[in-house]
Structures are given as C-alpha cells and as structure tokens.
Design brief:
Largest sheet: 5 strands, antiparallel
Low-confidence stretches: 48-57, 70-96, 346-355
Mean pLDDT: 75
Structural class: alpha+beta
Number of strands: 9
Radius of gyration: 32 Å
Number of helices: 13
Oligomer: single chain
Strand order of the largest sheet: 8-7-4-1-9
Strand content: 5-15%
C-alpha cells in the first residue's frame, strides 16, 4: 500500500487517526522501503526541530589556529621559516608552521562549512514548513469531519428511535428556541455527547467557552437558570456547528424528517450571518465541512465550489433566501447555536457590525 510523504509526516507528528496510524505501522513491519522512508522523514523532522542557531564565537581565530597546531600570536614568525615547496597543498595547510595565507584559507573554509550547514538547514525548513502546515490543516479538517460524523450518528439514531422519524425539535418560542438545543436533546435522551464532539479544531468559537464549562446541560438544569444565563448557554451549547431549524409542513413548523438523502445537509461548520450573507471563519475561511443525511461529510471550498454545490439547496438559507426554517421537507436550513427557527434579528444586527 502506498502512502504519500505528507501522510507519513502527519503520522510522525502524531496527527493521524488511530486506525490509520495502526495501518501504517502494520505495513512498515513488512515493507523495508516504507521503513527507510519513515527513517528519512524522521531524520529530516529531527533536523528541523534541533537545528542550532549559528553564531561564530569571538575567539574563532584562536580556536582555528589551535586546531591546526599554531598559536595565533606566534604564527607569523613560525610560519615564515617553514618551507612548503614540495608539500601537498592540503597537507601543508595543516602543518604547524603553515603560511598565513593557508591559515586564512583553512579558517575561511571552516567558516564556510558552518555557513553552508546553516543555509542547508534553512532550506530544509523552507521545504518542510509548508508541508507541515498543510498536514496540520488537513488533520484539523479531518478531526472536524470526524466530530460531525460522531454527532451525526447520534442524531440519526435519535431520529430512528423517534416515533415519526424526526430530528430533535427546536422550539419556536420560550427559553429553548435556539438551534443549539440539539445538544441538550441528545444529552437528555441518554446519548453520549461532550463539548469535544461539538468543537471544530479549525476554528476559535463558542465550543471553547462550552469546554470551559465542562459539560452539556440537561433540560432540568436549564430550567433552573435565569434568562441571562440561558441566553449565554444558547450561544455556546451547540458549539461550533449549525443545526436544522426545522421545516414547514401543513402550515406548521416541525423538525426535519430523517430520510437518508445524499443532498440534504443536517450539520455543518456554523457561519456568522451578516444580513442575507454568511461569513465563514472555520478552517481559516477556506471552506467548511458539511454532513449530509447519508452520513457523508464533504469539505466545500468557499471561494471555488460552494456556489455550485449549493445550487440545489443552500444549507443555511431556505428556498426564499432567508435564514429561517425550510419551507418544504426538501429545504434544509441550518443555523448556529443561538439562532431561532423564525430568525434572529439580534444575531443579524451583531454580525452586521462586523468589518
């Protein structure tokens, strides 16, 4: 089995998933060429980590003269009396009575060797740094996708167990009218949901505050809180992801029904809403991970393919172009943790103030 250098560097940095790391180790036990590649990459990474900062010592001349056997304060008189007509150039340069020109040559050669070493290590860093940055970006993107899959499996299990095959309900009004209530539904139904699963490693957002609190609350715990405390929980309890706000059915707002569709988005990296537009901050604004009903996660580059991919159904707007509930069962409309099914003017105003 063939592995790219980027993947092997990711493995050496400890960024690969456990299953993939075990596969690489298993292949390496029987593949000597893979062992050699790993050894070469491990050495290169070690050179990058341990590369010294070179600064010539102040007594470099004395050290150099001592190395060739001629004290610096005596070399001019001693070297003048020596003959070198028949001695090989390299040997004569190393003799105790060598001529000052040869001493200067030897000294310059050693300085050049040190400079060349530093330049080589610098070039190696320049070659490996982009690869390492790319590996870390891909590792964070993969971990984000894995978190979406974990939460998605629990959502699908919740829907299958629901009498009508529905996703968790986002309340239309009251203290629990925010999309992040999905996490509370899962926790209260006995499913394993932690702040870590709701965190996107490629962004700095609400999940960081959720992690400081240490757990996802239950409905019982939320009912004991003040309005201000619930408002704060609404911003953070859903973490860094966006959830379905529900759909219209026979004139009523109901939870989306799970049908296993490959085009219907159920979870995604949450954007910030700025009026009718969205601001994407996850993964450096390069793209977002989207989980579909069939369990597939796709990374959609924002500037390249998002528009084309969303022609069928924009995951964050309904078919009317609004940040509100879907108008049909085929209309996915996802919102950040603090967004309500009927829109959230306060959130839109705060986002509109962003540069």
């Amino acid at each position: 089995m063939q592995f790219s250098d980027e993947l092997l560097i990711e493995y050496l940095l400890g960024e690969t998933p456990r299953e993939l790391g075990e596969l690489i180790e298993q292949c390496a036990r029987h593949d000597t060429s893979l062992q050699e590649r790993l050894a070469t990459l491990r050495f290169a990474l070690g050179q990058v980590d341990t590369a010294p900062v070179f600064e010539p010592p102040g007594d470099l001349v004395d050290l150099t003269m001592a190395r060739i056997g001629c004290p610096a304060n005596e070399h001019s008189s001693a070297c003048a009396s020596e003959t070198r007509d028949h001695a090989p150039v390299r040997q004569q340069a190393l003799l105790p009575g060598a001529h000052p020109d040869w001493e200067r040559s030897a000294r310059g050669g050693r300085i050049w060797d040190s400079t060349f070493l530093v330049m080589s290590l610098s070039a190696l860093c320049c070659l490996l740094l982009p690869v390492m940055l790319r590996v870390r970006f891909d590792a964070r993107r993969w971990q984000c996708a894995e978190n979406l899959r974990v939460v998605g499996r629990q959502l699908f299990d919740y829907a299958v167990s629901h009498p009508r095959g529905r996703m968790p309900e986002v309340f239309i009004e009251g203290p629990f009218d925010f999309a992040g209530i999905y996490a509370v539904h899962l926790k209260s139904s006995g499913r394993q949901i932690t702040p870590f699963h709701l965190q996107c490693p490629g962004s700095v957002g609400p999940a960081d505050q959720l992690c400081t609190r240490g757990k996802v609350p239950s409905f019982t715990e939320l009912r004991t809180l003040s309005v201000a405390e619930i408002d704060h929980w609404a911003k953070v309890v859903g973490g860094d992801y966006a959830y379905s706000l529900g759909v219209m059915e026979r004139g009523e707002i109901v939870p989306a029904k799970y049908c296993g569709r490959e085009y219907y988005a159920v979870l995604a990296d949450a954007p910030l809403f700025q009026g009718p537009r969205e601001l994407y901050s996850a993964h450096g604004g390069v793209g977002i991970n989207v989980l579909y009903e069939d369990g597939r996660v796709r990374f959609l580059p924002v500037k390249q393919t998002v528009a084309a991919e969303w022609l069928h159904d924009h995951p964050f707007r309904n078919h009317l172009g609004e940040h509100r509930v879907g108008i049909t069962q085929e209309d996915a409309a996802l919102g950040p943790s603090d967004f309500s099914p009927l829109g959230n003017s306060a959130a839109e105003i705060s986002c509109a103030e962003l540069p």
